[in-house]
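<instruction>
Derive structure tokens from the sequence
<entry> Chain with its tokenised backbone below:
===
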Amino acid sequence: NTTRAKSKIQQWYKLQAREQNIADGRLIMDREFRRLALSDVDLEALIERLSLPTVDDFYEKVGSSELEVTQVLVLAQQLDPRLKKDSQLSLIVAEKDPQTSVHGIVGVGNMRVEIASCCHPGVHDAISGYIEDNKAYIHSQDCEQLLQLQNDYPERFIKVSWSEGFEEIYNIELLIQAYERRGLIRDISAVLDEEKMNILELSSLTDKQNNTVDMQFKLEVTSLEGLSRVLTRLNRLPNVYLAERK
């Protein structure tokens, strides 16, 4: 049957295309995760956020360009425990009678603020505050543990939101290896300045015999997407042969 034969051929080509896209997507994301030092990305949590059934479906969509790498990086950033640990929190607490503002928080006096480890809310998530031991724990509003606490201790909850225009800031370490040349530091600094990345620390080690230099930067960044863009630009600079997150 000619129709059945054509159908089988089309299915075969479709399967081949899927397998190629999966392979391409895996290569793309492995490379991106490696240079951003994201060695322990929770792929199961990632595909759950993307509403995809399997990891292969995730790789297929990346390989076929249906899913943008930048979108993946935004989610990976939210799931990275190292970034959560270093994030700088700025909140506005809305109460009937707001008092003074302490560390970006209105109405809680000197109360400390901590991101809940059970749900790790990101800056774009709707959030609620739970008071315990004179500390405000910040949860995602859809956090299962939060919902249980609301049933048990409704009086301990306060209304919170991210401050307008707030960006989370992360401290990351960058390694750059290059062959020495005049103006190298100037060119690297120019890229970081153009991308609005603040240099906190810089150390370098020169190998005069091989005419190479290893530079380690500690930077403030606001997103993995921006860091990825910076790494691409740094790797294109003359004499630079490696630029990656440590």
